Structures are given as structure tokens and as C-alpha cells.
Amino acid sequence: MKCLLFLRLWFIIETQKIQRGAIMKVIITENYDEMSKKAAEIIIGIVKNNPNAILGLATGSSPIGTYQYMIEDCKKNGTSYKNVFTVNLDEYVGLTADHDQSYAYFMRTNLFDHIDIDQANTNLPCGSAADTQAECDRYNALLAKMIPDVQVL
User: Whole-model pTM?
Assistant: First the structure.
């Protein structure tokens, strides 16, 4: 799934498993809150239909509203993430996972610490790896095996 701001309208582009010839469904919303809620509904639906789903997640300000709706739903409705896996696409080189500017820290404070996900099922590149090329190779191999059911960009 991809969210784009264009001409003051919010778009959500939803695809099923990333594959050749995948069909995208474009959803146009009036504002950020509506887009965040709709994106969360899509993700929550995927998780309810597949408790072992793989979620491709993103950092930055755009997905925060979506993550807040996911947290709210987990607390109010009991949607469980305990068997869900996640992958993020990037991390800052040189930052440890506990650094407050790292993407790992962002994901924990904005989502993972507030839902019942097994932290061992959350995957981000290691920004503090001694050998960055080896870490890139390791993570690219992991991404090749863990095809997301949905990708937030």
C-alpha cells in the first residue's frame, strides 16, 4: 500500500502480494485522518484474515496516524499481531537500534510497544553493523524471502 499526497487529496494504493501484473486499487480520501483510518482498516483486515501476515512498514510522519488507528483497534477490538511479521526497508547507518533517531526506535515507540507483536518478528536493517555490505546482503536475502502482504510507503 502506498499513500501519496496529490492536489490536496489523499490516495491509498492497495495491492495484493507484490507480483508481476498485480492490480492496484486506488482509494481517494478527503484528508489525512480519513486516509490514515482507511489504511489502518486495510492492514487490520489483512491481519485478521492472515494472523501470520507480513507487513511492510515505513517510518516518518505519514504513517503515524495509521499506526495510531492500529493501536486503538488492538486495544479496543483485540486484533492480535502476535504472529505477524514486519519488515522495514531502511535504517540510518551508524545508529544503534536504541538511538532515539533510529528507525528501529521510531517503530517501537510509534507502534510495536503498543501492540502485542513479538519483537523477534520485527525486522529492520542493523544500522550499527560493522560490515555494512554484509548487512545489506543479509537484509536483501531476508526481503527476498519475506514478501509483504501489504507495503506502507
Answer: 0.85
Distance in angstroms between the alpha carbons of the first and the last residue of the chain: 7
Residue 22 pLDDT > 70? no
Quick check: 54 and 86 in contact, CB under 8 A?
A: yes
For residues 126-143, one letter each, b for 16 or more C-beta atoms within 10 angstroms of the residue's C-beta and e for the rest, the string is: bbbbeeeeebeeebeeee
CA 124/CA 136 separation, integer angstroms:
11
Helices 32-49 and 64-77 meet at what angle, rounded to 10?
50
| 34 three-state secondary structure | helix
pLDDT digits (tens, 9 = 90+) for 71-98: 999 999 999 999 999 999 899 999 999 9
Max intra-chain CA distance, the chain: 45
| Alpha carbons within 13 A on the beta-carbon side of 37 | 6
- C-alpha to C-alpha distance for 13 and 91, rounded to whole angstroms: 24
Q: Residue 21: what pLDDT?
A: 58
